[in-house]
Structure prediction request, 629 residues.
Amino acid sequence: DDDDDADIEVVLSEQDKERIGNEAAEAATPFTYLDAMVTPATRSDFGDYQCNAAMGLAKHVHMSPRDCASTIIDGLTTLLQQKQQHNDHDQHIATLEIAGPGFINLKFSSNYLTNAIQHMAQDTDGRLAIPKTTEPQNIVVDFSSPNTAKEMHVGHLRSTIIGESISRILEHVGCNVERLNHVGDWGTQFGMLIQYLKEEYPDYASTIDTATDTASSSTTCENSSIGDLTVFYKKSKMRFDEDEDFKETSRMNVVKLQAGDPECRAIWKTLCDISRVEFEKVYKRLDITVKECGESFYNDKIPPVIEEFDKAGLVSVEEGGAKCVFVGEPYQIPLMLQKSNGGYGYDSTDMAALKYRLQQLKSTRTVYITDFSQSDHFQMCFAAAKKIGWTKRDVDDDDHNNKQPQQRLEHIGFGTVMGEDGKRFQTRSGDTVRLVDLLDEAVNRMEISLQQRLEEGKANITKEEIPKTAAALGYGAVKYFDLRRNPTSNYKFSYDQMLDTKGNTAIYLMYAHARLESIISKGQVNFSVDVNDLMKANTQIQIGHPSERNLALHLHMFTDTLETTLEDLFPYHICDYLYALSNAVSDFVTQCKVLGSPEMNSRLLLCRSTAIVMRQCFDLLGIRHVMRI
Prediction:
C-alpha cells in the first residue's frame, strides 16, 4: 500500500496554535497572535511544527528574519522557563530551533504527549477525557425527510447518514439534540393515491372505522402490490396524467383530506403506515435514529404564521390573491405563505416548522440537511425569520464588532451521487436506485470477499460470523465513502473503490483497527499480558521511537478535530483524522516491534489507546466497528 509508506503530515490543532501564538506574542512584543503563523513542519526531521511569524514580522521591527526568529525563541524560552519554575504550566515544547532564512521549528515534549494520551485512555467514562459542555444547547437536526408513498432511493442516502453523524457528534459533547424527520406526508399527491387505492381496492371502504378514522390491518397493508410503493405510485401517477375525470376526483380528495374526511384520512394513514415500514428497512440497516415530524404536523400551525406576518405588515398580496413575503436582496422572488387558491406549499410548511423549532423546541441551533438545490429556499426562510424577529440575538461581539445570532440557522446543502459515468446514479433501465438495494449489494459483495478470504485461510472469523461482519463492513463502506468528502461536492458511486482494502476507505480503517486488537489479543494469549490489567495498574506509556511519537501526536489531535467539526458540522474532518491516524498506526506497527519487545507493555497500551480513539471516531460517523476480520 503506497499510503503506508508516504510521509505522514501532522496536523496542528487550533488549540495548540492559539497557545503557541499567545505565548509568542507575550514573549515578543509588538508581535500579536494574528502574526503567529504555525503550520506542520515540511519535514519530520525538522520537528513537529514550524512557525513562520518571523518572516512577515521582520521588516516591521527592522530586523533580519533570522534575528527576528531568534528574538521570538529567546522570549518564548524565558517565558516557558518562568512558568515551569512556578509550576503552573507544563513544558510542552521540547525544542525551538531556527531553520533556513527565519523559520522556527518546534517539537513537543514526550512527557506532554504521553500524559495527554494516558489521560485519554484511562478515562473511566469512555469519553477520552473530553468533558461534556457545561451549557448544553438545544439543537434541531432536520435530516432524511423521504416522501410518504415513495420508497427511499439513493437521493436520500446523503441527508440520512450526514444527519445521523452530525447528531452523534453534537450529542457526544452534551448537546440536547432533537433529530427530526420532516417526511413529505401531506400534499396534492395524496389525492391521486387515495383515489387509486379506492378504485383498485373497492372493498377497502368496508374496513373504515369512521369513529377512529382508521382501517383494519388486513387487506391493504399486507397486499404486496400496495406494499411495492414505487409501483403503486407510478400507476396512480399514470392514471392522473391520462384520465381527466381521475385527475378532478383526485383534486377533490385533497380538499376532503384537509377537511378531515374519515375515509380519506384512514387511507392516508394506511399509506403512511406502509411507508414507515419501508423507511424502517433502511434505518435499521444504517443504524439511524430519527423522530418523524412530517409536514402534516405543521398544517394547523400555518394560519397563525400568516397572520403574524400580516400584522407585521410584511405580507404582500400578489395577483390572484397569493400571500407573499419578500425578504430582500439578493432574492427577487418571494416566499409564498399562501397560494392564490388558499392552499399551502413548501414555503408555508417550512416557515411554520421554523417557528415551532425556535419558539416551542427552544432551539439555539437549527440545522437542515438537504440537497444543494434547496439552499436559496432555506436562506429565504432564515431571512424571513430574522425579519419577523424570531431569532434572538446576543450582545455585541468584541472580536468582530457586530451582533452574532444567539439562535443559529444553518443549511448544509449536499451534492449529487453520480454513477461512474458521471451522470446521476441510476439503474440500467434509467430508474432511481432503491436505497435498500444499494446497501444490500455492498453487503453481498463483502460476504463474497470474506468467504474467499476464509477459504484461503486469511480470515480471522468463523463462517457463522461472516454475515454480521459483512454487514458492518458493507454498510460502513457506503457511509464512509460519502462522509469522507465535503458534503457540498458531487461524487461518483463506486463499489470497487469503497470496498478496497487500500487507500482512504472504511475497509482499510477497519483492518487497521482489527490489526491493533489482534496484537492486543496475542499479547494476552502468547505473553500473558492483559492490557486491561496494565491500564488498571496505571502503567505508563513511554515514547521513544519516531513512529511512537507520530502516533501519540495524532491521538492528541482528536479533541481539536472534534472542535473543528463542531464549527461547520462537516463529518469529513473526523474522516480525515481517522485516515491519518490509521496511516500512523500502519507506520507504528511496521517500524516498532510490539510483542516480545522490551517496550511491550507500553506499546500494548499505545495500541489500546489508539483502538479506543478509532472506535470513538467510528461511532461518531455512525459506523459499526469490528474487532476481527
In short: The first strand starts at residue 38 and ends at 40. Residues 1-10, 217-225, 395-404 have pLDDT under 50 and may be disordered. Residues 517 and 627 are 6 Å apart (CA to CA).
